[in-house]
Design a protein that fits this description.
The protein has 127 residues and is α+β, with helices and mostly antiparallel strands. 23% of the residues lie in helices and 28% in strands. Strands 1, 2, 3, 4, 5, 6 and 7 form a seven-stranded mixed β-sheet that branches.
Length: 127
Amino acid sequence: MTRQSIEVEGLGHPGFPIPAASRVGNIVASGGIRGVDRETGVMPADAAGQVKLMFTNVMAVAQAASVSAERIVKMTFWVTSRECTPHINELWLAHFPDPASRPARHVMTYDLPGGMLAQCDFLAVAE
């Protein structure tokens, strides 16, 4: 099987040759996805704004990899403080409303760079 780099405009890693995600066969693994506005490159200063854009960007990466939200099996979140958790929970329930069909999830406190308050990655199985 051939590995395929998945790129999404506005979600590059400036100065680093890292794709937004990688796909081998039906397995898709993303890199770190932050809450940045892909058109302007601006990251909101508040947790709610960053988390909202982070989820938007997760879905953009998944779509670029031909994966639906229902095929995401695990998400890991890194946050600078637990202040982000209510915002993650709100959007988690919006994106994964069925309690019998949600991805596994892990949230860890981490010292993120450059004003970033939250970042995540995901693992998915495409059809």
